Amino acid sequence: MAETLLTLENATIVFGGLTAVFRVNMHVDPGELVGLIGPNGAGKTTIFNLITGVYKLTEGSIELHDAEKDRTISLVGRKPYAVTRLGIARTFQNIRLFKEMTVLDNVRIALNGEVRSTLLASLTHLGRYHREERRLVEEAQRLLDVFDLGAKKDELARNLPYGEQRRLEIARAMATRPKLLLLDEPAAGMNPIETSALADTIARIRRDFDLTVLLIEHDMSLVMKICERIYVLDHGALIAEGTPAEVQSNERVIEAYLGDDDDI
Amino acid sequence: MASERKSIFSRGVGVLTVKNGIILVLLLAAFGIVQILRWLGWIYGPIDDALAWICIYVVLAVSLNLITGFTGQFSLGHAGFMAIGAYTAAIIVGRYQTFPSVLVGLAAGGILAMIVGILIGVPTLRLKGDYLAIATLGMAEIIRVIAMNLTITGGASGLFSNGHMVTWPMLFLVMVITVVVISNFIRSARGRACIAIREDEIAAESMGINSTKYKVMAFAIGAFFGGVGGALYSSYFYVTKPVTFSFMMSVNILVIVVFGGLGSISGSVISAVVISAITQYLISANALNVFGLFSIEFSRVNQIIYALLLVAIMLFRPKGLMGTMEIGDLFKRIGRRKERVQ
What we know:
By secondary structure, chain A is α/β, with parallel strands linked by helices. Chain A contains 10 helices and 10 strands. In chain A, strand 1 (6-15) and strand 2 (18-28) form a beta hairpin. In chain A, helix 3 (103-110) crosses helix 5 and helix 3 (103-110) runs parallel beside helix 6 (162-174). Chain B is mainly α. Chain B has a single domain (15-330), classed as ABC transporter involved in vitamin B12 uptake, BtuC (Orthogonal Bundle), CATH 1.10.3470. Chain B contains 13 helices and 6 strands. Chain B has helices at 18-39, 45-70, 78-96, 99-124, 129-149, 168-187, 189-199, 201-206, 211-236, 247-260, 265-284, 298-316, 327-341, and strands at 12-13, 16-17, 159-160, 239-240, 288-290, 294-296.
């Protein structure tokens, strides 16, 4: 049996009286591109926030399998930065770049986990400092080139056009060297040409970085085109799982999106 | 692709760059001018005091800017750190009265303030915005009240010394070291992490940055230099008493930082120089007679001027003198404009 990379078991979170996610069982295998879809307010982003440690599970478990060391790590109770260091990076639905910082610095910050020089070196700029800074700049530049943002490295992030901001967010996430990338509506607000370019980018980084992707998306054309497996969420619970074709013909999915007769 | 043209300022190896060379020359020039003026006998009592205040306020403002301007943690307790440094140095220097004791006093004052900063930072830095401001304000008040009630700190009347245990060269040197160390930190990977926390804490955490760690780090470094600023104060002036380190002192430092620009080291330096020079002039100046109708004694209306200044900044230039820019950025901007014209 192939080991899964990420496993959610009975993942449940209750906010006050509201059960936002209820007993969700999901798994993502290494190398897969899995879609997570559902109507607005179904709890998709909440699941991302549970995985990355922004919210704490009320019940259930989330585990990450480290194939290299053959061990399973529970993500429950870990802070977001710790989850990121375990190899899970994410982007945000409502772009959260460091707006007042340059494009280069946005990526450089995500490379902070690789900083080895001491605090003393940071304070004095002696020792390894200059060599390390040069390496960080080169590394950031290399990543920006992958995402066609190399020429814009000195611009402030807030001055980039919308589509490029989305790309920069992915570049920044990639700088943390993730095994699993969580993309939260990367195509939101993009036109069809940009969306199709995005699909190519995702395919390319999957191949080049040996990456597993979990994707939340509203743009069905994108989801159906690139996802290998899809989970459908409605009112916090999973209602369907399968290949794009299976999900498309699933009655409960159609009902969730279009509403059934009783709703009227 | 834009051609990679390195600006002349960044040429050089390691710390030996053209830019650093220019900075060194300017610093030596500033120091030299003061020395020449002193030699000419133009610098006496009040001006000497004003120069000391300038150095002290630069140290305090730049260190608070690291906490509030760069890391985005609103602290109203810098006078507390200053008090710890001031009393520590006053006790040590008062006992030994030698130059080495001044150095020990400066270091001990900074380290003690840093320890208190860490102890207070760990529980309070999880608070956000206004709540953190209130907590740090409370901390500073507690420190002041403790100083008022201990015998070792001389109670309400404070500690007296011979004064002038630090002199202008020493003040200048400590000020320069403070500015260099803090701006080094800000331009390092750790400093960028702090700025990222200010920009968007959730995004920073998602990039693998342990926000609590970096907030405490910035707070500790800021507290250290706050303590050093206090130690300079008590080593230069004759009296160290609790009333100096009241809420108003924290506000004074904050006004300088906000006026200079939250997130601009050169802004803080310029603003500290300008504001303390003006304040010292007003304090030393005699009462101003307004058309023979009434007279204003500046030492009394000092705080009103401060408050009015704060209101004026918020109305007309909320980003402060420099915003988040540094002097170097201004030159770059002028350079770019020239390029465009050509």
